[in-house]
Design brief:
The chain is of the alpha+beta class and 246 residues long. It has one domain: Butyryl-CoA Dehydrogenase, subunit A, domain 3 (Up-down Bundle). Helix content is 52%, strand content 17%. The protein has a 6-stranded antiparallel β-sheet with strand order 4-3-2-1-6-5. A hairpin with a 4-residue loop joins strand 3 and strand 4. The longest helix has 35 residues. It is elongated. The chain starts with a helix and ends in an 8-residue tail after the last helix.
């Protein structure tokens, strides 16, 4: 049973790491590519490099946008980036601030739940029954917030882009009409941070279920984990802990 709690804590810790990465990485990208003519004449029988490919993109982080201009070919790869807030896009700024609040809230609750689980599985400090009950619910709420963040962006971004008159796409299609898509060399789609937030939510949900099962087993056996002395000795025996655990 203790092994279950240990694995649950490890899963919650992994979710915390993934959620942290999600918060600092971009959540959305809009980019367009064009191709230049072949830079050299290609003799017969000789393999020539591909044409120059140009890619310009805007990456949306939770706290601002980064503009990236790339010149890529077999000869040259260049990249210049500038990062700002959300200039001229007040509604987009509010949306991303809301998403950031949800993601950070989920991360904070995940950290607390992980700490409570690690306290018993590795540090082996006594816990009260209320703490045993609280840890999985903190993890569940944290997972809900981490999952809500990308869903809010999914639902809210197209109308918000419309309100802010974001111009990108092909006229008949673009990020004001759909959350992801492409046309005529233009692409708009969620970026790695958006995907990682969903992954972190799934991992923390699994950890929360394991913590809940562990706490339920403790409470079913009448194990009030604030025990001391002989009470703590009986507790260790009932859950098969080694006698030297303190």
């Amino acid at each position: 049973m203790l092994r279950t709690c240990r694995w649950a804590s490890v899963l919650c810790l992994a979710a915390v790491v993934v959620a942290t990465a999600a918060i600092v990485l971009p959540w959305y990208v809009m980019g367009s590519s064009t191709s230049e003519p072949e830079p050299i004449a290609c003799p017969v029988g000789v393999t020539c490099p591909p044409p120059y490919s140009l890619w310009n993109s805007t990456h949306f982080y939770l706290f601002g946008e980064c503009y990236v201009a790339n010149a890529a070919s077999s000869y040259d790869v260049g990249s210049v980036a500038s990062c700002v807030g959300f200039p001229g896009e007040p509604h987009t700024g509010v949306l991303y601030a809301t998403v950031a609040g949800l993601a950070i809230g989920g991360l904070a609750l995940g950290v607390v739940a992980t700490g409570l689980g690690l306290q018993f599985t590795f540090i082996r400090r006594p816990m009260k029954a209320t703490v045993v009950k609280l840890a999985p619910w903190l993890a569940i709420v944290g997972g809900v917030l981490l999952l809500a963040a990308p869903l809010v962006l999914l639902v809210g971004q197209p109308p918000v882009f419309t309100m802010d008159s974001v111009t990108f796409g092909c006229g008949y299609a673009g990020p004001t009409q759909s959350f992801m898509g492409g046309c005529d060399g233009n692409q708009w789609n969620p970026d790695v941070g958006w995907i990682l937030s969903i992954g972190a939510a799934i991992v923390v949900f699994v950890g929360a279920l394991m913590l809940y099962w562990f706490g339920k087993r403790l409470l079913l056996h009448g194990q009030i984990v604030a025990a001391e002395g002989s009470d703590m000795k009986r507790l260790k025996q009932s859950i098969d802990l080694p006698p030297d655990v303190v």
